[in-house]
Amino acid sequence: MPKTEHGQVILLLADGFDETAVTILLITLREAGLAVLVVGLRSGRVNGAHGLMIIPDMSLDRLLEKTPPILAVLLPSGMGHLGRLQIDPRVGTLLSRSIEEQALLVGLGPHVTELTDHSIGLECPIMWIVPESNQSIEQFAIMIARRLQDLQER
After folding, report:
1. Structural domains of the chain sorted by starting position, each given as residue range(s) with its CATH number in brackets
2. 57 to each of 5, 43, 61, 87, how far by Cα in Å?
3. pLDDT tens-place string over residues 48-101
4. Contact, 120 vs 91, CB < 8 A?
5. pTM, rounded to two decimals
């Protein structure tokens, strides 16, 4: 059974997400025993960039109402995905709370850094963890899983 007492790992999805990165990361983290909550900007299915549909565990509205402790927020890249996140003020609320809780902010591609503190109304800078240019998504997912496991053990 995944541990959740140290916080929830949030995978935030909007239409247009990168299916490959999301699938690899989600499987890797769950196989590592981490509790990953898939959250959509809205209720119902979320469509990936190439037609893969995922039904999130809950909507962002419901997550913000529940306010569980947050260990990490994971944001995939993808065509249109970041633009949808950038214009949604609830994303700023989630990231602000995550920063206050000292959660890891993980981007699954280099373009996630375009989601800046200024563009979503945050007063503090966002420190993203993103894959290095020579790092595969598999290697990155394993690194993130180990880092999150270490945080939970503290």
Report:
1. 8-140 (3.40.50.880)
2. 18, 9, 12, 22
3. 999 999 999 999 999 999 878 999 999 988 777 788 888 888 998 898 888 888
4. yes
5. 0.89
